[in-house]
Amino acid sequence: MSKKIQAIRGMRDILPEQTSLWQQVEAVARELLNGYGYREIRMPIVEKTELFCRSIGEVTDIVEKEMYLFDDRNGDSLALRPEGTAGCVRAAIEQGLLHNQVQRLWYVGPMFRHERPQKGRYRQFHQIGVESFGLAGPDIDAELIMLTARLWKKLGLADRMELQLNSLGTSEERIVYREQLVNWLEARKEQLDEDSLRRLGSNPLRILDSKNPEMQSLIEEAPLLSDFLGEESSSSFRKLTEMLDAVGIPYRLNPRLVRGLDYYCNTVFEWVTTELGAQGTVCAGGRYDGLVEQLGGKPTSAIGFALGLERLISLLENGENELGQTQMDGYLICVGDKAQEKGIILAEKLRDALPDLKILLHCGGGSFKSQFKKADKSGAQFAMILAEEEVENSQIGLKPLREKGEQKSVSFSELVEFFKNKSL
Ligand code: ATP
Ligand code: MG
Q1: 85 ligand 1 Cβ < 6 A
Q2: Is any ligand 1 atom within 6 A of the Cβ of residue 282?
Q3: Strand 103-112 relative to strand 408-410: parallel, antiparallel, unpaired?
Q4: Residue whose CA is closest, atom 16 of ligand 1?
Q5: How far, in Å, is the centroid of ligand 1 from the Cα of 111?
Q6: pLDDT confidence band for 60 (50 / 70 / 90)
Q7: If pLDDT is split at 50, 70 and 90, which confidence band does 198 have?
Q8: pLDDT per residue as tens digits for the range 68-81
Q9: 366: burial class by Cβ within 10 Å (0-12, 13-18, 19+)?
Q10: Ligand 1 pocket, 276 CB below 6 A?
Q11: Which ligand has its closest atom nearest to the C-alpha of 211?
């Protein structure tokens, strides 16, 4: 036997027993987003490397060390997308979606980051992303948060998520704050870890986001950005919290919440659960008013978020939820050559008559006993049986598999009626 080839580290197969939950989560999200007037956009998975350097920022974890880069055959440097916002903004500018128009967009798909794989952290993972363009907020900020809250409710997760909120203010306000923060950190330089020392000169706000516990206790004492916000930023943020109060969405103000990407301003938020250890952030987003211009478009208000599907699914798998495997209605047993020939035709005719009926057709022959075992194991509600006798009499055997009941013989039209009345 030749040597087996394995998947790339951190890139997982999502197996058939899991995809059913994935499909249901995606379907709930799709319906919800469509119901709020958001429309799907599908972007390429590969973009020019420059797009991410210019948008996410040169001095961020993603651009410094997490991107999958390769040279195209003509020498262009390309990247597997580490997130969706940059590509979405690129597409919106390039396709003229932003000329005096409001856009509410969403997408779903794989993202790639070369991180250390662990639970809730993979090198290929999936996000649902939502972006809105042309609206300055805070009403749209509230809408985005409300629709995520509704998604948790629909998935039965509402009481397992905490909303954290902060405002990063305008870039002018951040410049003043940044100076104060750097002065404060310079005075405590000997307490900074290696990462933070490196960031001090390049991206000091990111130090606030450090996951190192020692750094976190130092940061507790650092000056707060909220003390540097002007009247406009503060009042816009206050209005957002009032709207959330009005619809009863609880939140925690977290003055140290900064996001790992450079393009954010004003409102930022995260939905966090305590159940997934250090990988507790399920959904994160914020306002990025400067990004469209930075990527060559006209100044455009924008806000968005991304939701990590692996973390969401793992939360659903942790708890009791009603989402689960697709339930088959019937398993068609065919014993003997003639029955097999008839069976495949019968299954197609049934699907024609009842397009929503879920039927598993037994393929590959075998004894009645072995087929019946498979029918039972499949989880189907009913066994339909075609053996020599049924074929001769143009009948089908029907037997419940999940409750007590005798096998009975029915005609094709009786079978159709039967399943119809089961209100499929
Ligand atoms: P973290 O702080 O956990 O590294 P992040 O700030 O890098 O997250 P974002 O870029 O904001 O994450 O991505 C939004 C969401 O996508 C995260 O909240 C998370 O749910 C998910 N996500 C990010 N990176 C990964 C990954 N490597 N594997 C699985 N999910 C991820
Ligand atoms: Mg990260």
Answers
A1: no
A2: yes
A3: unpaired
A4: 308
A5: 10
A6: confident
A7: confident
A8: 999 999 999 999 99
A9: middle
A10: no
A11: 1
